[in-house]
Write the structure tokens for this entry.
Amino acid sequence: MLVRRFTIALTLLCFSLFNTTAFAADSKKQFNICWTIYAGWMPWDYAQAKGIVAKWAKKYGITIKVTQLNDYAESINQYTAGQFDGCSMANLDALVVPAAGGVDSTALIVGDYSNGNDGIVIKGANKQIKDLKGQSVHLVQYSVSHYLLARALEQAGLTQKDLKLVNVSDADVVAAFSTPSVKAMATWNPQLSELAALPNTSKAFTSSQIPGEIIDLMVVNTDTLRKNPSLGKALTGAWFEVMALMKAKDKEALQYMAKHSGTTLDSYMQQISTTALFYEPAASLAFVRDAKLPTVMQKVSSFSFENGLLGPAAKSATAIGIEYPNGVVIGNSKNIKLRFTDTYLQMAVDGKL
Amino acid sequence: MRLINQHPSRGTRWMLAAIPMILIIVVYLVNSHLRLVENPEDKLLPSVSQMWEALKLMAFTEDPSTGTFLMLDDTLSSLKRLGMSLAIVASLGLTLGILLGSIPLLRASLSPLVAIISMVPPLAILPILFIVFGLDELSKVMLIVIGLTPMLARDLEQRARELPKEIIIKAQTLGANSWTLMIRVVLPQLLARLMTSLRLLMGSAWLFLISAEAISSTEGLGYRIFLVRRYLAMDVILPYVLWITLLAWLTDYALKKLHQVCFPWAEGADA
């Protein structure tokens, strides 16, 4: 008797669980955006804190909640799982996590590209990438550092098989570098500048040698954006309002961003100097329309495919179609999962936001 | 009849144990199906066949770059780290437990220190551990050792102090000195407790192992999970978690059986 009642109760509980997931509401006015700490993404923090996002959202009759997450990989996973409508991420990660996970995503804002923010540091003076042969390199595997290393090796005529890759967690990069067993590290800022500042080390390669290949984006769900263009307009408007402040070297804004990224103004300005930020919508627009972008994305796709990051279903590096402005598609046009758009940037250029 | 006096029969007990597990599996399968219908590439809740495909690739296909089977490599290196650490933890913890539990002078000096050290979260002092033990295997083993030894030592010390005074006095009237007392009276009692404590510590041991493998490694079960987590490969992560759970359950079962065989007299208290 008791057992039966217990079973019925559990069954009911079980069904109520299904229902909450099955019938999540679709029409909406409220949007959730996430971002993580990085020099090129601090403007989102400022825009949220100073009510700039709220102001633009109000203009289009919606509300946008911008949330800071502490773990970069986790923030992308949360976006991919559908917890957020948009998230800040690098081009490589946008391809291998949401796009490879079947979540059709649009790179709404191309904020900047790394122009020295990622690099490879080797212990010893005057070391070069070719000295890495037979050595072990510590890095966060499958991150943009891994891509950077692959590109550096390619230019030095080496392959990943010529060395041993050791995975470290990004939080442990600086501490790990101070132990004797670590000889070389591929990482990004602010850790990179910490390591390069140590005596007797060589910065053997940085992203300034492959400019425009590691791109920082605000990625939003394509479906959501199509149904709600006002989300795209509000985010683009808010972003370039902060960009204008940064271009004008607004002391208050820069100081705020420096403080909230946990560093000093000097060090933040240093990080900004190796981040090629697009202060003007026109610059960002030119970048997404440039014929170089598809070439870069092809390199990123090849790297991802060779390292198995596109998933077991991917039969080639072109398994995922990537759309560029003016309807140009490279890769499988039946499986477009990543899109670069110029619609909202054009509106920003025309002052129509 | 009152609820607290109702005992399930043998068959009902099996059924009651199975219901929650079956429920979890059903909830998973339904949600996974719903997500996959909406998006066939969904990575969050892979289907059983997707997990099987990933498992085949990890466990039964030679890795092209190393020429070995990844899951086997991962399992062996993780079990090696875990086994080595637990051996050190058990011997250190037992020695400390006996000494602190039976020698009041030593206890007065070291017990507070052990109590304080047991409060230090080892993950918080990772950078120091790197410098002292390097980044290789040693630091991973030491993370587990530092994490578990103080807990085990404190538990065993407490058990030693709970031994009935009568037994200690009786042994002394029969001519035992401090050494024989520790070896013949305290040690057997604590050995029995050691098995039980180790079983309880297994969860923490795995936790520290997985964290240690995130530090800096080229293989290991925790390493693989941390690695593929970057691109949300739940089709690899979930089978790995199930595999770890199975390994942990087997260890627990083995320790339980060992306890039954070696210390049948202690079954009443510790079983």
